[in-house]
Amino acid sequence: MPLRSLHAYPHRAGSGMLTRAAGMAAAFLAGLALVVAAVLVVRHLTEPSEPELPVIPDARRPVVEAAVRTCSPLSVPLLAAQIDAESGWRRDADSGHAQGISQFSPVTWKEWGQDGDGDGKADVWEPRDAIPSQARYMCHLYDVVKVVPGGKTGLGATRLALAAYNAGPNAVLRARGIPKILETREYVDKILNELLPKYRKSEKRYQESEAKHTSSASASPSTPASPSPSGDPSGPASGSSPAATRRP
Fold first, then answer.
1. Is residue 201 exposed (0-12), middle (13-18) or buried (19+ Cβ within 10 Å)?
2. Where is the signal peptide (predicted)?
3. What would the pLDDT profile of 45-104 be if each residue is shown by its tens digit?
4. Distances, alpha carbon 135 to alpha carbons 34, 91, 205, in Å
5. Which of 227, 235, 198 minimizes the C-alpha distance to 84?
6. Is 104 helix (H, G, I), strand (E, B) or coil?
7. 63-213 topology per CATH
8. Which residues contact 152 (CB under 8 A, 6 or more apart)?
9. Which of 63, 143, 191, 243 is most open to solvent, judged by the fewest CB atoms within 10 Å of its CB?
10. Closest Cα partner for 99 from 133, 63, 56, 130?
11. In the chain, which residues have pLDDT < 50?
């Protein structure tokens, strides 16, 4: 039986060519997809990721927010950055000469430690006592450093108040500025140049999140509250509390 050429079946030849072309196209697209995926993975691994921001622990936020009302120079990010530098938010932090979340020396705590949680005891290991005491002491230091050049307002005052918290106010007054103590200079630098910018971003993100949550909640239908049978309620009054340091 004579062999039949492909020309005898033109439809079969065309079909085979189309199949090969489709296979080549599919292989090309698959290869291209792999190349694109590899490029994206490499880019993801090589691009610097935004560092994770520090946050104020939920249990500490109410006391920090209340403490900064002690005086106007204080702010939530500043106090948070200082606590982070002092103890990393550890209530049991103990350096050997300073104790608690706000790292008070025994001498300074004896003078500035106050009962912030209302249990009748000023406890350096209790953050609800120590953080308000820290704020109160910082406000005092802001007043102390006003006599030092650059200590009246702004960043200069904050630098000097932080230095006084770490080294003691007498050291700052004697030096007429930040003392030439490596620990103190590193302490001030870490708070202002490293931690404070991060806590400012963190706090901004927190406030934006809270605003969205509040907006979403107010947009939802709510049931009218029934009148209180006991008359007009009154909320608890808010007060101010204390502050801290390492050297008297």
1. middle
2. none
3. 555 555 799 999 999 999 999 999 999 999 999 999 999 999 999 999 999 999 999 999
4. 57, 16, 23
5. 198
6. strand
7. Lysozyme (1.10.530)
8. 146
9. 143
10. 130
11. 1, 3-10, 12, 225-245, 248
